[in-house]
């Protein structure tokens, strides 16, 4: 998997964590939920990339 995609997946997970934190601070349940979703998507994509790389070698 390309380095650019790996960085994009990590950035998505970090963005989700930030959104979740901002939602918690501001009391916005919607923002918390969005952040949780973004974070889960980013982490899932990272895990998939690691599995893909493991079978490549």
Briefly note the structural class of the backbone. Answer: mainly alpha
Number of domains: 1
Q: How many DSSP H or I helices? A: 2
Q: Biggest β-sheet, characterized?
A: none
Spans of at least 5 consecutive residues whose pLDDT stays below 50 are none
Order of helices and strands: HH
- End-to-end distance: 12 Å
Helix fraction bin: over 70%
Shape estimate: elongated
Determine Rg (CA atoms, Å).
13 Å
Strand element count: 0
Q: β content, as a range?
A: under 5%
Mean pLDDT across every amino acid position: 92
List keywords for this structure.
57 residues; mainly alpha; 91% helix
Explain the overall architecture.
- With 57 residues, the protein is mostly helical.
- The chain has one domain (3-56).
- 91% of the residues lie in helices and 0% in strands.
- The protein has helices spanning 3-26, 29-56.
- Helix 1 runs antiparallel to helix 2 (29-56).
- The longest helix is centred in the C-terminal third of the chain and has 28 residues, at 29-56.
- The chain is elongated.
- The N and C termini lie close together (12 Å).
- The relative contact order is 0.20.
């Amino acid at each position: 998997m390309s380095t650019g995609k790996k960085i994009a997946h990590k950035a998505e997970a970090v963005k989700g964590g930030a959104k979740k934190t901002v939602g918690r601070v501001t009391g916005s349940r919607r923002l918390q939920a969005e952040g949780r979703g973004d974070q889960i998507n980013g982490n899932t994509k990272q895990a998939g990339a690691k599995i893909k790389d493991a079978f490549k070698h």
